[in-house]
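Notes from the 1:1 (GR / supervisor)

We went over the backlog. Supervisor wanted to see one worked example end to end before approving the batch request, so GR pasted a single chain during the call. The sequence is below; no edits were made to it. Supervisor asked that the structure be written out right there so they could see what the output format looks like.
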Amino acid sequence: MNEKAGDIRAAAAPKAARLRRLGRKLLRVGGGRAAAVLCLAALVAFRVWDPSVLETMRLKTFDLYQVLKPREPAALPVVIVDIDEKSLRRQGQWPWPRSTVATLLENVRDFGGVAMGFDVVFAEVDRLSPDRFARSMDGLRPETARELSALGNTDEALAATMRTMRIVLGQAAAVAPPDDGRAAQAQTPVALLGRDPKPYLLHYPGILRNIAVLEAAASGKGLFSINPDADNIVRRVALVAVAGGALQPALSIELLRVATGKDAFAVKTDDAGVRSVIVGGVEVPTDSNGRMWVRYTPHNPARYVSASDVLDGSVDPARLRNHLVLLGTSATGLLDLKATPLEAAMPGVEVHAQILETILGKSYLTRPNYALGAELVIAVLSSLLVIVLAPILGAFPVLLLGMGVAVGVVVGSWLLFAEHNVLIDVVYPLMASFAVYLLLVFVNYRREEVQRQQIRSAFGQYLAPAYVEQIARDPSQLSLGGETRTMTLLFSDVRGFTSISESFKSDPQGLTALMNRFLTPLSDAIMARKGTIDKYMGDAVMAFWNAPLDDARHAHNACEAALDMMARLRAVNVERKAEAEAAGTPFLPLDVGIGINTGTCVVGNMGSEFRFDYSVLGDAVNLASRLEGQSKTYGVPIILGSGTTERVHDSFAVIEIDLIRVKGKLEPERVFCLAGDDAVSKDPAFQSATQAFATALAGYRAQRWEDALAALDRVRASQQPGILPLADLYEARIRAFAENPPPADWDGVFVATSK
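Structure output shown during the call:
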């Protein structure tokens, strides 16, 4: 009895040891996950806190985006009348006499300026006004004093000129209320849509105003003060602020309001803060504090005209006609230079000009109110993905996954910026997910990483992603051999690629980029319709359907993929043509020929015990390759074999084009052109053209040359692009046979002499 009990204990001991080891492993896994979740919670709190170092990293990323893709320079709707160094040399130091400024305004008006804004403030009366000068000078003869007084007041003269045009005076935000005893100025009318925006806006205690006589003559008043970020770079500019206790528009907003003849502007607010400012019928998105992200172009001297040239009338009037005009300075001594993401020192007046261009071009950047939530969600989801998958996949695959996620996040953020002008931070999500990854990998999963890496290395020998998943579930499939299946094969090749390659002989990297550029969308079209890419052969692609996974619609999917490939290639050509025109370089379009055939093949692991690939062999494969080569002969992009056509003719626009004996085969093959989808096949014009071509083909095979030519004329009259090349081909054949008739035993089969 004791011996039997001992035997039972001895047999149970290894099992118990395995259970203990499993328990310790699960404990390690659970402990690592708990630590990762705690780390993630701390990272979320860190983002909500948003210390300056994190904000700086985020802003620097947005700066990089602008450096990589600044706003496209377009027509310049704003011109800057520049108080530059030349103007100061000719007119003297600023401020100039108001009579000089009045002359400047008159010339801007006469040259057709729409409206004019001042990036300067006239806070004091003109001490050089003749009447004031006469009163301030002691000892002047009465006659002289009367003559000077008769010349009038230059401030009033400037005000009189301002009343003849649309003028927006600039105002500066002040750190303290001015002690000038003046009554509060009239506020620009503003409509409030939603909550009161004041709690969210920037606040200034006071305003540095213009003198009363000029304020009364102006069409509007706007703040030109610009607050940079903590690193002294101007990225955002407040479009509306609270100054002197009242809502004040920025100079740019007020200039647009005045130029469009509107009586007011509007501020839209929700629970998260300010959403937008509406002026002249345009809604301009802002951050929650009413600040607009400026989409910059590099400094452009074409925006500027010298104030001295405007004063002496030497400026081209077209430079001002129908433009918004800003008066400001680029002179170094007047200290109005700002740092921007693109420039270390840009005149402040040009910042206002770029704001106006951004608004008028509707190319403004937006960082929506949901941005923080989106970044937290991305960080949490990517981190949880790592936490969940790391124990399953291992460290290195998760690293690759993390790199893929990182690339996806970066590309997504970049595309949102480049295509939609939306700013989403990538620094924090990448930092958070990478920190979680490091914690998991180096604390909990070191040994599992090595084991999983070995397994995935074996799987990496396969081309077909679906097949990789199959052998992951059943490793016994990692052996030589194959199976017989009915499959659809597709071959595609670029026409004239040698000529295109020659144009890149001094730029092999450019040729590689071009190949990737067109092979990627073609491959995407195949993969999107359950196809497996067998291999790339230079610029050619070989793909197949109905293996390794069953696909009852393999012929249909191959035809749909071929049509999609042609559509995607057309889109690539449109982009390349626009790029070539912009760069002033020749444009060589990419043209692809496709051959598709369906038949019995052997598919499986082909090769040796040392190296093998998942591929396909058979006569149907060879025929598909030959059909692709004949697409150039017939001038049509897609040729189908009869095996494919039998399966798809009810769903696609197909046209019989010939009986052909391809090179290397004895039996002729009836071949067809794939001209479009089901909608094309039902088009009456297409049906008429197809019937006319069928008549021409029958006449050709019966050697009724005149009947065939007459039918071909009807084909041309249809103007169906998918059939027209066939008309030209058969006319050439018929005319050749008319001069040199075919032999008596001619069966209408065309013998292809090339692949």
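Supervisor's comment: The first strand starts at residue 78 and ends at 82.
Batch request approved.
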